[in-house]
Amino acid sequence: MLEQAADVGGTWRDNSYPGCACDVPSALYSFSFELNPFWTRSFSSQREIWDYLRRCAQRYGLTPHIRLRHEVLAAAWNHARRCWQVNTNRGELTCDVLITATGPLSEPKIPNLPGLETFQGKVFHSARWDSDYDLRDRRVAVVGTGASAVQFVPKIQPTVGRRGLGAGRRRHPQAGGHGDLRHRVPRHRYADGHLDPWPGRPHPGRGVVRWSPSAPRHDGGRVPEPVSSWSARTPGSATPR
Ligand SMILES: Cc1cc2nc3c(=O)[nH]c(=O)nc-3n(C[C@H](O)[C@H](O)[C@H](O)COP(=O)(O)OP(=O)(O)OC[C@H]3O[C@@H](n4cnc5c(N)ncnc54)[C@H](O)[C@@H]3O)c2cc1C
């Protein structure tokens, strides 16, 4: 596996803007073979999702097969040798089967705005957030009002202050309350190292996702199974990306 960056994680490695989080419930935004009863929120943060993905790469033995800092520059089928020739920034490789999984959003799209090149102020894309740049008391213009803006605008608004923030839009996004909740994280650990979400008892708490420890898992352990829903609290989710 060839990865241009220095770590795995894709979207969840590259997007670190304030408020970056899943906008579908984390219990659904998980691998079916690696369900995670330990999400701390119903819509988990970027950092937590990135950690989960890194753990998965380790746990399923992918890490030794990943060549980091290998950017694919071109690929062509070689008829004579009956293989793919893959050009990377670290040289040429060959393979029988080529699968691209470069993601639809891995390259930030900078809009073609007249005057952008000569603009004297700071400019950055939300997918390459400059966390060293201090937004305090700055007048900030946000271009776009999609799912990312819905997440970071409320986070930076108290910092930039009143009258400091403007947002431009091309289309109306649709947003609705999604009821993000803090989860109670389980503590008990099985002898085999797995954590038991709710040791020995159904949990009566309101506003938490409960899990049944009874469903069998392919590796002989136990797989969490959602058995109740959560109650809404915080509005502000975005349309799916
Ligand atoms: C901020 C944000 C939030 C999102 N939230 C949600 C959500 O809540 N729910 C949802 O369903 N979807 C969401 N998405 C969509 C998200 O992109 C997908 O869910 C998913 O993460 C895409 O995974 P992927 O592996 O296809 O692509 P990516 O995660 O983009 O991974 C592609 C990888 O390919 C690498 N790569 C690209 N080009 C090359 C090259 N030439 N050579 C080598 N490596 C290369 C990249 O560095 C990257 O690591 C969100 C997207 C963003 C940007």
Summarize the structure in words.
The protein has 241 residues and is α+β, with helices and mostly antiparallel strands. It has a domain at 188-232. 13% of the residues lie in helices and 12% in strands. Flavin-adenine dinucleotide (FAD) binds next to loops.
Structural class: alpha+beta
Radius of gyration: 22 Å
Inertia-based shape: globular
Terminal Cα span: 26 Å
Number of helical stretches of at least 4 residues:
3
Number of strands: 7
* pLDDT < 50 runs, ≥5 residues: 197-240
User: Roughly what is the average pLDDT, rounded to an integer?
Assistant: 80
Largest sheet: 3 strands, antiparallel
* Strand arrangement across the biggest beta sheet: 1-2-3
Instruction: Classify the helix fraction into a percent range.
Output: 10-25%
Strand % is: 5-15%
**Unique bound compounds:** flavin-adenine dinucleotide
Order of helices and strands: HHEEEEHEEE
In a nutshell, what does this entry contain?
This protein has about 240 residues and is an alpha+beta fold. It has a domain at about 190-230.
